[in-house]
Please model this.
Amino acid sequence: MAITVSLVALFGLVMYFLLRSRTLTPGAAFAAAGFGFFLASTGAAKPINQLTESLIQALPYL
Model:
């Protein structure tokens, strides 16, 4: 749960700066999609959360 909340905050901060600078790039589109999936409780949220947790757990081994 703590990971999800911090990712929502991170995506929200990224979206704020992207909207403020009026930038729309593939990175901005990814940030918007990620923010929407983590914020909403859709059927896609669980697999995305699992993927994110797996990636975070794999970071020390890279």
Summary: The chain has one domain: 2-61. Residues 2-61 form one domain. Residues 2-21 form the longest helix (20 residues). Residues 7 and 13 are 10 Å apart (CA to CA).
